[in-house]
Amino acid sequence: MASIPIPCLVDTGVPLVANQQAEQASPKCVIACTNALNEIRQTGGLVLDSSGEIVSEYQNKLLRRRGQRGPGDEFLLWVFTNQWNASKCERVTISRNSQDPPFFAEFPRTQALGNFDPSDCKFVATACAHPAKPPILVSVDTDWTNYEAALTEAGITIHQLCPEDLTAMQARKRSRASG
Length: 179
What we know:
3-stranded parallel β-sheet, mainly alpha, two-stranded parallel ribbon, 9% strand, single chain
């Protein structure tokens, strides 16, 4: 099993890909996401916000299908069980600001991140609020790649679990845009 950085945050796309709920993800990507979630479940090291923004997003996207649970669903159940267990999960305080997108005081205020996806701001704000600025694990969401340089400039690391998938997706987008 390839080791992932610990502590870390997990973008919601990772458990969705592990559940095979992302058509654009290759089988290799599904395995990488599943392995990453399993490693976190075994070792701990998940970083969450203390207000429950991240857990709420997981809950809204996972455990929605009938039948057998996928690895992403099992990850959410693990989060429910361990979110208050300090040996498994770290909770970091972020401050919501409803009048000013991106809605969190801890989010970097840079022009380069001005159009960053508002639904992902909670992950960046949580990483910024943590003293170690842990990396954010991502799967097949090209928005993270598009803003990677600006995030790096702000001290945030993106850990891509599916770099080949992202490269192929960006090539397809460029091809469609030019043709």
